[in-house]
């Protein structure tokens, strides 16, 4: 009889572990599957029973999530089992390319089963020496459904934003104390308007993205010469019908508007930089009539910053000084949420109101 130990840490991982335990018991009826939450009873010595079951098991399964990947207890159990030459298999339930990247991680030597890669049936059959039948397939399909339901119940950010958040948290600049999650919104405590943020946004859009909307003022970082690939890409797409589904919109503050007087503490410098950037934008876009229609100028006060990257919103609320001038936004905090959330719907509506009232740049 095969003995299997299921290791978990934190609430979400615990729920995944229970579903996994019951699924393995259905797939391999003669297996002895141990999980501390269900198999340690009142009065038993917890640590002693866990150690004994690791020593006696043939296989240890680790239920990894983004929250527990550095859990000391999870890594201890993995390391102890590995030291005893047990078969150790990480089960990855969350998308996280950095799950085994830290120093001395015992998982660097173990091949994982990734729930997000679509080979679960094959992996289960190989791992548990199963012959695929209709019944086996039904059990694994039901397992997938249960895991997806559990993931949805524990989701801390809407699925449309997961990839963008993952890219941001892979950069040290955004991860010292960030992000904080609340109501399906990721709150980053620094990094807004930095080159690193713009680089992630542009890289996320290039070649696979459909929407890029920018509610900027000067847009200096975009037209400073670092993102030539973006405009070469847009230029190529512009010759195709409807830009091959690309929806690019960029808003500049109108240098002739009264709002220029209140858009920055250094009015003279700001206006000259705005005019210079608009000239660079016109030079970059040139005579391309399709891309020219993607650029407009607004004259209203900008009281929120909205960037749409596909179905995500990168959002920041300016802070104003006593004279009503906005403070410098570079490296300030920002939020990230789905366009389908209530905040997202409001941002889309607000952007389109500004866009429809704006005038053509060209």
Report what the structure shows.
The protein has 362 residues and is an alpha/beta fold. It folds into two domains: 3-154, Rossmann fold (3-Layer(aba) Sandwich), CATH 3.40.50; 159-360, Endonuclease Chain A (Endonuclease, Chain A). The protein has twelve helices and 14 strands. The chain has helices spanning 11-27, 36-39, 46-56, 72-83, 120-127, 134-154, 162-169, 195-205, 228-237, 267-285, 289-292, 342-357, and strands at residues 3-7, 32-35, 59-64, 87-92, 113-114, 180-182, 185-188, 211-215, 247-253, 295-298, 305-309, 312-316, 334-338, 359-360. The chain has a nine-stranded mixed beta sheet, sandwiched between helices. A five-stranded parallel beta sheet has the order 2-1-3-4-5, sandwiched between helices. Strand 3, helix 4 (72-83) and strand 4 form a beta-alpha-beta unit. The longest helix is centred in the middle third of the chain and has 21 residues, at 134-154. It is elongated and about 80 Å long.
Question: Layout of helices and strands, plus pairs?
Answer:
Layout: E1 3-7, H1 11-27, E2 32-35, H2 36-39, H3 46-56, E3 59-64, H4 72-83, E4 87-92, E5 113-114, H5 120-127, H6 134-154, H7 162-169, E6 180-182, E7 185-188, H8 195-205, E8 211-215, H9 228-237, E9 247-253, H10 267-285, H11 289-292, E10 295-298, E11 305-309, E12 312-316, E13 334-338, H12 342-357, E14 359-360
Parallel strand pairs: 1-2, 1-3, 3-4, 4-5, 8-9, 9-10
Antiparallel strand pairs: 6-7, 7-13, 8-11, 10-14, 11-12, 12-13
Helix pairs in contact: 1-6
CATH third-tier fold name of the largest domain: Endonuclease, Chain A
Number of helices: 12
Question: Which class of secondary structure composition applies to the elements?
Answer: alpha/beta
Distance between the ends? 75 Å
- Rg from alpha-carbon coordinates: 26 Å
CATH class of the largest domain: Alpha Beta
| Percentage of residues in helical conformation | 25-40%
Question: What's the architecture of the largest domain, going by CATH?
Answer: 2-Layer Sandwich
Instruction: Indicate the mean pLDDT.
Output: 88
Main sheet makeup: 9 strands, mixed
Helix-strand pattern: EHEHHEHEEHHHEEHEHEHHEEEEHE
Number of DSSP strand runs: 14
Strand content: 15-25%
Low-confidence stretches: none
CATH superfamily of the largest domain: Endonuclease Chain A
Oligomer status:
single chain
